[in-house]
Every structure is written in C-alpha cells, then in structure tokens.
Design brief:
The chain is α+β, with helices and mostly antiparallel strands. It has six helices and 17 strands. It has one domain. Strands 3, 4, 8, 9, 10, 11, 12, 13, 14, 15, 16 and 17 form a twelve-stranded mixed beta sheet that branches. Helix 2 packs across helix 5. The longest helix is centred in the last third of the chain and has 22 residues. It is globular.
Length: 344
C-alpha cells in the first residue's frame, strides 16, 4: 500500500456536504435504552452514545413473517487480492480483461484502481480455487496475493471511541460504551481507514388483500463517516464522525464534522507520519460488492403504527454495508501487518 500525499484531503471518503438523515414521523423514532435519546429507525446503534438500539420495537412482526439475509460464508474460503501500486500502468486492455474476468463494468475497475492500494477481487471457496483465480489474474501481468478468510478474525469487535486526548508522544481514546481509556504511542499507529456506513430502508404498504402498492411505499437512508484506527496492539478503534467529540482540536475546531475530520486527519499525518491513511473505500465499493454483498433483511407482513391509531401491513427491507466495510478494514489491516513482517 502506498502513502497518500500530504496535501490530499479526505476526498472521496468524506463528501463536501455532510449527509443528513431523512425525516421520520415521531412515532417511528427509536429511543436509546442507555441515553433515552430518539434515533432514526434505520440505525442499529445510537447516534449519540453508540449503544445498540432495540430496533425490533419499531416494527412488530406478525406470525409467519420471514427474514431474508445474505447466506453466511463457511469461513473456509480465501480472498484473491490485487496489489496495485500507484506507479503501475492501467493499460486499457488490461483493465478491460480484468473487468471481463470479474464480470463488472470497465469503469468500475478503473475507478477502483485509481484509488491505489489493495483491492479484493473474489472470495474463492477454497485455497485451490483461489490459487487458480490468482493465476488467471497474474497472466494479465498483475500482482495478486491470497488471504485465508479466517485470517481476518471477523468476530473481533471494534472499540467505539467517543473522544480522544492528544499528548506529545501518545494518543488516548475514550470508549463509548464503558468509558475505558486506551492509550497508544503515536509511533504504534500504522493504519487509518476512512469509510462510510450506509443504511437504507424501503417500506411498501400492502393493500387490497396483500397486493403491494409501490406508490404507497417510502425509501429512507442514513449514512455516516467512520474512521478506523489500527495500532500494533491489534485493538481497532472506530470513530463515528457525526457523534464524535472534537474538543481535542482546541482552537482548530470548526462548526462542521467535515472540517473537523480534515483537521483530525492532518494531526494524524503530522504526529504519525509512518501511518498509512487509506481513503479508497468509496471508489472500491462496486468491486467490493462482488466479495462482500450488502446485507439485506426483509420482513414480510409487518405491522406498524401509522400515527393516527391505525395499523397497516407493510413489507420492510433494510440494507446496509457494515459487514462489507468491516471486512475491508480488517483486510487492509492484515495486509499492512504482513507487509511490515516481511520488511523485518
């Protein structure tokens, strides 16, 4: 993975206009059990304190309601990962052939490659399948590696950080849930991954004896910028930008989360120059969907309050990219450690 230029801003990972949650009726909001504040029904964690939300209280599932989810992987597969250098030529013929192998659009491959760094291309069912796929891609003159699926340790949680304290030689993070303090030296910081968690909810009311009326449906979405901080202690910090306390910036603190995020990353660049800052997630997302599909849950024949005392049938589909981004961040962490081990 290559270092990002000092002058590069948050760019594609953090839009110049901050995203805002879509509006919901008062009766649709979910109260947090920890801080009692109201949250959009599309969130799985509290916007203010980060505690898990009991979103099941929003929609009462009728008997026989079904839930659709992505089929879980067995955990025995292997990832085929492209190692792309900024200096590597992106010849049109090579990009076209790679897109054909992956069965995606050429522009999607070009955009992902322009982000630099590493790009997971496929999750093979076995190490043997991964090796065969890797050989096909190497035949295009590209560098690839394979990573066993279980090496990413998908069950290890991220520590949610609500604020940090800056010192000359160290950084202390305050946990959202427990209030615990985690202190690391700036020299132990080696990777920061910027991304977005996006949740969409589509609700279609059912009328006329179960027939769905798309015109009566609603579509809501919520997205939030996050920053994963990886250290040699193998404890990953996760900062939710919208709810983070930027008091650590002092006089540099601005009115917007976007400007505060820029200032925060600049501090990381200055005090931890050895750390890589990866901002490729947004441009890589179309390719990542082939490896980690978005998670989708559909609840059929849901009963909900309409706000005027009535109840209606509805089908609610919730889609989010949290597993996708978690996996991508862990993969970058694993390969960064592998690169460091090879050097030493």
């Amino acid at each position: 993975m290559s270092e990002l230029d000092e002058t590069k801003t948050i760019g594609t990972a953090i839009d110049h206009q901050e995203s805002k949650p879509k509006s919901f009726a008062v009766d649709e909001l979910v109260n947090c059990d920890e801080c009692s504040r109201a949250n959009p029904p599309t969130r799985s964690a509290c916007l203010y304190c980060g505690a898990p939300l009991a979103t099941a209280t929003l929609l009462e599932v009728s008997p026989g309601a079904a839930t659709e989810a992505q089929t879980a992987s067995s955990g025995d597969g292997s990832y085929v990962v492209l190692i792309h250098r900024e200096t590597d030529p992106n010849e049109e013929s090579t990009v076209s052939q790679l897109a054909s192998l992956l069965q995606v659009q050429t522009t999607e491959v070009q955009n992902a490659l322009s982000a630099g760094g590493v790009l997971p291309l496929r999750l093979a069912k076995s190490a043997e399948d991964a090796d065969r796929c890797a050989d096909d891609i190497r035949s295009l003159g590209l560098e690839v590696v394979t990573v066993a699926e279980n090496e990413l340790k998908p069950n290890e949680p991220f520590v949610k950080i609500r604020a940090v304290e800056l010192a000359d030689d160290s950084l202390t993070g305050l946990s959202v849930t427990s209030g615990a303090r985690f202190t690391v030296k700036w020299s132990d910081l080696y990777l920061l991954v910027v991304g977005r968690l996006i949740t969409t909810q589509t609700e279609i009311e059912e009328k006329r004896r179960g027939k769905q009326q798309p015109s009566d449906g609603s579509h809501n979405s919520f997205d939030e910028t996050v920053l994963d901080v990886w250290t040699y202690s193998n404890i990953a910090w996760r900062i939710f930008v919208n709810s983070f306390d930027f008091s650590c910036l002092g006089s540099m603190k601005s009115l917007t989360a976007f400007e505060n995020s820029k200032a925060m990353l600049q501090i990381f660049r200055e005090r931890a120059p050895q750390a890589q800052i990866n901002e490729s997630y947004t441009r890589a997302r179309p390719i990542l969907a082939n490896v980690w599909p978005l998670e989708k849950q559909t609840r059929n024949s849901q009963l909900r309050h309409t706000g005027i005392g009535k109840r209606q049938l509805a089908t609610v589909t919730v889609t989010d990219n949290q597993t996708q981004f978690n996996s991508y961040s862990r993969l970058l962490h694993h390969l960064r450690l592998r690169e460091y081990s090879n050097r030493t």
